[in-house]
Design goal:
The protein is α+β, with helices and mostly antiparallel strands. It has 13 helices and six strands. It has helices spanning 5-18, 29-50, 52-61, 66-75, 98-106, 135-152, 171-188, 202-207, 211-222, 232-243, 248-255, 259-273, 280-301; strands at 81-91, 114-119, 122-128, 157-161, 165-167, 194-196.
Length: 302
């Protein structure tokens, strides 16, 4: 009886994992199902016991019991107690096969760094931390990852990272903090590509507010006429104006825009929102309100 595609795939997977080639004879559909079940059990058992990446994935996602970590880390020759940092990488599409190869050059195996794929679009880098390294070094490493992959893999990459941790048993918590940084960063600071866990600013505060409080804040600022969005040119103008600390001359120069055109656009924003962005307090209120609107849109679409 010819093997089904499913059984052939299972046999191939077993061979790739273990190097073992099995000759399976299944004359009936029942025998084939039984063989398929047994082969999958062998693959799972091998992955759990002898596959380093599978073990690290379990650590990151928190699916390995604490009591099992020491024994399995020892068997896989992974140092359990070592100061590390976790970088979480995410692409817009699927992870290109060239990305892990490029990362191996940035984080060679001999440095005891580990590349851990998580989903089709995300992976983790577990990297040891040197005693002399500082927060600025971690920020520079994250930027190097982004710049290198943008240039060599032509991929849009965002990177978030955790604080330092001293044991693999803390890996899951480190991942959670990096994941939160990535989520909050995408939501409130989408123009950035690097999101440190400890530099989320007011975004961290807004993300933890109940939706009812956010809606109340928007009604207080705008009344019943809450603006949904502006046209792209106005959005760009507002963003650059705020980035330049409300400096009209510098914003006009950077946008190659006449000063009067910029003032006209700011006047239009004031007519629509009641906020004069040339005043610090109104500009701050507008920025917070914009972040809250983005947050509510994200929550409603999730």
């Amino acid at each position: 009886m010819k093997h089904s595609t499913e059984l052939e795939h299972a046999l191939k997977n077993l061979r790739q994992l273990t190097g073992i080639t099995l000759d399976v004879k299944a004359d009936t559909e029942e025998e084939e199902i039984q063989a398929l079940t047994q082969i999958r059990c062998l693959c799972n058992a091998y992955q759990e016991k002898y596959n380093k990446i599978h073990f690290l994935q379990g650590l990151v996602t928190g699916t390995i019991p604490i009591y099992d970590i020491l024994e399995r880390a020892s068997r896989l020759h992974i140092n359990l107690e070592e100061r590390r940092i976790l970088f979480l990488l995410k692409t817009k599409g699927s992870l290109d096969e060239t990305i892990p190869e490029i990362l191996k050059n940035l984080f060679p195996p001999q440095t005891h760094s580990y590349l851990v794929p998580l989903t089709e679009s995300s992976m983790v880098v577990l990297r040891p931390v040197k005693d002399s390294e500082t927060e600025n070094d971690f920020l520079q490493i994250a930027r190097t990852i982004v710049d290198t992959l943008n240039m060599e893999a032509l991929s849009f990459i965002q990177v978030a990272y955790s604080g330092c941790f001293h044991s693999l048993s803390e890996c899951s918590e480190a991942y959670k903090s990096a994941y939160l940084a990535l989520k909050v960063g995408n939501l409130f600071y989408s123009e950035q590509t690097v999101f440190p866990y400890n530099r989320l600013g007011v975004g961290r505060l807004l993300y933890q507010l109940p939706i009812s409080i956010c809606e109340g804040f928007l009604r207080e600022v705008f009344g019943d006429d809450i603006p949904d969005s502006f046209d792209n040119e106005t959005d760009i103008t507002i963003t650059r104006f705020l980035q330049n600390n409300l400096n009209i001359a510098e914003t006009s120069r950077q946008l190659h825009m006449h000063r009067n055109t910029l003032i006209y656009r700011l006047d239009q924003v004031e007519k629509k929102t009641g906020l004069d962005l040339r005043k610090f307090e109104d500009a701050m209120t507008f920025k917070l309100a914009s972040m809250v609107i983005n947050y509510l849109h994200s929550e409603r679409n999730s």
